[in-house]
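Slide 14.
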Amino acid sequence: MGFVKFMSSVTGRVARVVAGLALIALGVVLGGGWLVLAVVGLVPLGAGLLDVCLFRPVLRAPFSGKRARSMGQKAGA
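Slide 15: predicted structure.
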């Protein structure tokens, strides 16, 4: 569950935003068919900005970062 905990953290959220921006920039710079990469970059960017993670439900964790963090605090108390 270390991955879920990381993705729920502020650092994980920032990592998703940075990864999304990097993919978008790379796709725009390379141009042509690589523009698809820019479109794909919208997914992690949006997920980071909205504080959600698409992997969490697969790992049986809450979709919302705020909810995942609150559950982690309850478990650690």
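Speaker note: The chain has a mean pLDDT of 86.
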